[in-house]
TrEMBL record:
InterPro entries: F-box-like_dom_sf, F-box_dom, FBXL6_F-box, Leu-rich_rpt, LRR_dom_sf. GO terms for cellular component: SCF ubiquitin ligase complex. It comes from the Eukaryota. Residues 81-132 form the F-box domain. This is Putative leucine rich repeat some. It comes from Anopheles marajoara. Pfam families: F-box-like.
Length: 550
């Protein structure tokens, strides 16, 4: 019924009286009649199709079961390729040996073994299993104690470097994630103390005995995440493996029973004294250490051949910072090439002027990483940098990200002239209008392959530094440039793109002075070419030679 209304139309709906609601049909379940014995027997004899159809019904399985059965039932194909039939096995062995030297035994040999039966046979040669990383490439369901013992007995007899630690993702402590070993910031949680480096091992000593029996020529071992490793286990390693030179004890000390852990003060000092001149690489990252002065004294006294010392993300049991006697370490470890104290609760000790003058420095040092977060950024200053690098003429990598007390004067006075990797993001000199960024870029423009200027907000010094890099033209080896979050101008970016032919990666994310569409990370020749095309830039000079990233 429709009624007239000046404002609008009013609809009145009246329910019909004759409308009847139909009752719902009750849900009836048909009861299954029990079959008699005669009916069953007649059905079995008379209709085998039904029985077969029922038996042939596919069994439901999940994806994990199917994948597991496919891997376990894998058989090499019978039809062999030309490479397998015509190439002698000793030639394949030489080819595989070169591959293993470049990529490691795992996963290279695993992938090669799946090609054909001949390749599978060659990959089983124990002489190819030299450098083996079982922590990164082994699936979790295979990380059991029997499987590890089997691998030690049948695959690692000729191994010299074995990685049994947890797969740790290497991330720089300041700035963007990087695929390097500087600045470890990840912390790992383990479900139980029985999980040793993510391996389900109940008896650590039994595994070490198996290593000693079948891998006597071990040179380097990685035990990252082995929280059950005690001081006795570490002493067993250093006493029985006479060729052991490199030990990775990153992230192994537990919060409880700190005195019994392998990275306790007495445990480390005894192990260092026992190894003596054999020790060349020592990784202690991600640990809570005590007695850092005593550990440094043991290294400087007994380890003259030390090449690498990693103290990244080290905290101290005490409230105060750990004291690092750098002059003492310089006196005893003249061959040190890599020093990492990234984001660590460590401070350099005070030294008199005479001690600093008598110290020989680190003449062979090639990498120094002292990057820090906001809490530790005010500890490292110009004096500390000069004390460490006063004779380091061969320095190739310098990471001082987050060090807010550094100035450009200390960097310019460094004795090195062929620096290849420089990371300055977060430093105060990238935010100072009167900073000498241009002088720094000019000093190493001929050698810099990687330059990090992220979050630099001083526009003029930043633009001048980029133009100094561009002035080298085709001789510039610059390959990676990080300008993330900086106030760089569009003209400076065009200068770099037009004059640096080897550039392969440039990060322009969050750059306020650039147009939309280019403010992102660009990698590879294709993306760099598209960036030049979008900005209307033409490469002025072809590259003279490809840079070598040592």
């Amino acid at each position: 019924e429709v009624s007239d209304n000046k404002i609008g139309i009013k609809l009145c709906i009246k329910k019909a009286s004759d409308a009847t609601v139909q009752p719902k049909k009750p849900n009836r379940k048909r009861a299954r009649k029990p079959k008699s014995l005669n009916e069953d027997s007649s059905d079995e004899t008379g209709s085998p199709e039904k029985r077969n159809r029922k038996n042939e019904k596919p069994r439901k399985t999940n994806n994990n079961t199917e994948k597991r059965s496919a891997e376990e039932d894998y058989k090499p194909p019978e039809d062999q390729s030309v490479w397998a039939n015509q190439l002698p096995e000793h030639v394949l062995h030489m080819i595989f040996k070169n591959i293993v030297q470049d990529e490691g035994s795992v996963p290279a040999l695993i992938r090669l073994s799946r090609v054909c039966s001949t390749w599978y046979k060659v990959t089983q040669s124990p002489s190819l299993w030299r450098t083996v990383d079982l922590g990164s490439w082994t699936k979790d369901r295979f990380k059991t104690e029997p499987k590890l013992k089997w691998l030690i007995e049948h695959r690692l007899q000729h191994a010299t470097e074995v990685g049994l630690g947890k797969d740790m993702m290497r991330i720089a402590s300041v700035g963007e994630p990087r695929a390097t070993t500087r600045g470890l910031t990840l912390q790992f949680r383990f479900h139980s103390d029985r999980y040793v480096g993510n391996w389900k091992i109940t008896n650590v000593q039994c595994v070490l005995d198996k290593l000693y029996e079948f891998v006597p020529n071990l040179v380097g071992i990685t035990l990252t995440g082995w929280k059950a490793l005690t001081a006795d286990h570490l002493m067993f390693l250093v006493q029985n493996f006479k060729r052991l030179e490199s030990v990775d004890l990153s992230s192994i000390n537990a919060e409880v029973n700190a005195n019994k852990t392998a990275v306790g003060q007495s445990s480390l000092c005894n192990a260092i004294t026992e190894m003596g001149s054999r020790l060349t690489h020592l990784h202690l990252a991600h640990n809570r250490l005590s007695g850092i002065p005593q550990i440094v004294k043991a290294l400087s006294t007994h380890c003259p051949n030390l090449v690498l010392l990693d103290l990244s993300n080290v905290s101290t049991i005490a409230i105060s910072h750990g004291i690092l006697h750098i002059e003492q370490l310089q006196q005893g470890c003249q061959k040190l090439k890599i020093l990492r104290i990234t984001n660590s609760h460590i401070n350099l000790s005070t030294a008199t002027l005479q001690e600093q003058m008598e110290s020989p420095g680190f003449p062979a040092l090639e990498e120094l990483s002292v990057a820090s977060l906001a809490d530790e950024s005010r500890l490292f200053n110009d004096e500390y940098l000069q004390r460490i690098l006063k004779t380091s003429t061969q320095l190739k990598l310098l990471d001082v990200r987050g060090c807010s007390r550094l100035t450009h004067d200390s960097l310019i006075r460094l004795p090195t002239w062929d620096l290849k990797h420089l990371f300055l993001s977060g430093c105060s000199l990238t935010r100072d209008v009167s900073s000498g960024l241009e002088l720094i870029a000019s000093k190493w423009a001929h050698s810099l392959i990687e330059f990090d200027l992220a979050w630099a907000n001083a526009t003029k010094p930043l633009d001048d530094a980029l133009k100094a890099l561009a002035d080298k033209g085709s001789e510039s080896p610059l390959n990676h440039l990080n300008l993330c979050g900086s106030s760089v101008s569009l003209e400076a970016v065009k200068e770099v793109l037009a004059n640096c032919p080897h550039i392969n990666s440039i990060n322009l994310a969050s750059c306020r002075g650039l147009p939309r569409g280019v403010k992102r990370l660009l990698q590879g020749e294709q993306e760099i070419a598209e960036l030049r095309e979008n900005l209307g830039v033409t490469l002025k000079r072809p590259p003279v030679k490809s840079p070598r990233d040592d």
